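Q: I'm writing up a methods section and want to include an example of the input and output format. Could you take the sequence below and give the corresponding predicted C-alpha coordinates, formatted cleanly so I can copy it straight into the document?
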Amino acid sequence: MATYRNITVSEDTRLDSLLDQAKHTAILLDRDGEYFFLAPAGTSSSLGAYDPVQAQKALEAAVGSWSDVDAEAMIASIHRWREEGSRHTAG
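A: Here is the clean output for your methods example:
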Protein backbone atom coordinates (compact mmCIF):
# COMPACT_ATOMS: atom_id res chain seq x y z
CA MET A 1 0.00 0.00 0.00
CA ALA A 2 1.33 3.43 -0.92
CA THR A 3 2.26 5.84 1.82
CA TYR A 4 1.83 9.48 0.97
CA ARG A 5 0.52 12.74 2.40
CA ASN A 6 -2.42 14.69 1.02
CA ILE A 7 -1.86 18.42 0.72
CA THR A 8 -4.31 20.99 -0.61
CA VAL A 9 -2.45 23.59 -2.65
CA SER A 10 -3.26 27.28 -2.29
CA GLU A 11 -1.69 30.48 -3.56
CA ASP A 12 0.44 30.53 -0.40
CA THR A 13 1.86 27.02 -0.88
CA ARG A 14 5.61 27.17 -1.27
CA LEU A 15 7.28 24.82 -3.74
CA ASP A 16 10.52 24.61 -1.74
CA SER A 17 8.57 23.46 1.31
CA LEU A 18 6.75 20.79 -0.72
CA LEU A 19 10.02 19.53 -2.16
CA ASP A 20 11.55 19.29 1.32
CA GLN A 21 8.54 17.30 2.54
CA ALA A 22 8.56 15.02 -0.52
CA LYS A 23 12.13 13.94 0.34
CA HIS A 24 10.67 11.96 3.25
CA THR A 25 7.14 11.05 2.16
CA ALA A 26 5.51 11.19 -1.26
CA ILE A 27 2.81 13.84 -1.58
CA LEU A 28 -0.54 13.86 -3.36
CA LEU A 29 -1.29 17.50 -4.18
CA ASP A 30 -4.86 18.72 -4.65
CA ARG A 31 -5.37 21.99 -6.50
CA ASP A 32 -9.05 22.70 -7.08
CA GLY A 33 -9.85 19.04 -7.68
CA GLU A 34 -6.86 18.33 -9.93
CA TYR A 35 -4.36 15.92 -8.42
CA PHE A 36 -0.59 15.79 -8.81
CA PHE A 37 1.88 13.31 -7.36
CA LEU A 38 5.19 14.56 -5.97
CA ALA A 39 8.01 12.18 -5.08
CA PRO A 40 11.75 12.04 -5.72
CA ALA A 41 12.69 10.61 -9.13
CA GLY A 42 13.58 6.94 -8.98
CA THR A 43 11.52 6.13 -5.89
CA SER A 44 9.11 3.24 -5.99
CA SER A 45 5.54 4.00 -5.08
CA SER A 46 2.33 2.55 -6.41
CA LEU A 47 1.30 6.04 -7.51
CA GLY A 48 4.73 6.99 -8.74
CA ALA A 49 5.12 3.73 -10.65
CA TYR A 50 1.92 4.25 -12.65
CA ASP A 51 2.45 3.01 -16.19
CA PRO A 52 0.02 4.68 -18.61
CA VAL A 53 0.81 2.16 -21.37
CA GLN A 54 -0.10 -0.76 -19.10
CA ALA A 55 -3.23 1.06 -17.94
CA GLN A 56 -4.30 1.61 -21.55
CA LYS A 57 -3.71 -2.08 -22.36
CA ALA A 58 -5.84 -3.12 -19.37
CA LEU A 59 -8.66 -0.81 -20.48
CA GLU A 60 -8.52 -2.13 -24.03
CA ALA A 61 -8.63 -5.72 -22.74
CA ALA A 62 -11.76 -4.90 -20.72
CA VAL A 63 -13.65 -3.30 -23.60
CA GLY A 64 -16.83 -5.21 -24.29
CA SER A 65 -16.51 -7.46 -21.25
CA TRP A 66 -19.96 -6.38 -20.05
CA SER A 67 -21.60 -6.41 -23.48
CA ASP A 68 -23.78 -9.39 -22.55
CA VAL A 69 -25.23 -7.62 -19.49
CA ASP A 70 -28.84 -6.46 -19.76
CA ALA A 71 -28.41 -2.84 -18.67
CA GLU A 72 -32.13 -2.23 -18.02
CA ALA A 73 -32.36 -5.33 -15.82
CA MET A 74 -29.24 -4.28 -13.90
CA ILE A 75 -30.64 -0.79 -13.31
CA ALA A 76 -33.96 -2.26 -12.15
CA SER A 77 -32.11 -4.55 -9.74
CA ILE A 78 -30.10 -1.65 -8.33
CA HIS A 79 -33.28 0.36 -7.72
CA ARG A 80 -34.93 -2.65 -6.06
CA TRP A 81 -31.86 -3.23 -3.85
CA ARG A 82 -31.90 0.41 -2.80
CA GLU A 83 -35.55 0.16 -1.81
CA GLU A 84 -34.96 -3.06 0.08
CA GLY A 85 -32.00 -1.58 1.91
CA SER A 86 -29.11 -3.41 3.49
CA ARG A 87 -30.31 -3.41 7.09
CA HIS A 88 -31.83 -6.56 8.48
CA THR A 89 -34.76 -6.21 10.82
CA ALA A 90 -34.75 -8.12 14.09
CA GLY A 91 -37.49 -10.60 14.26
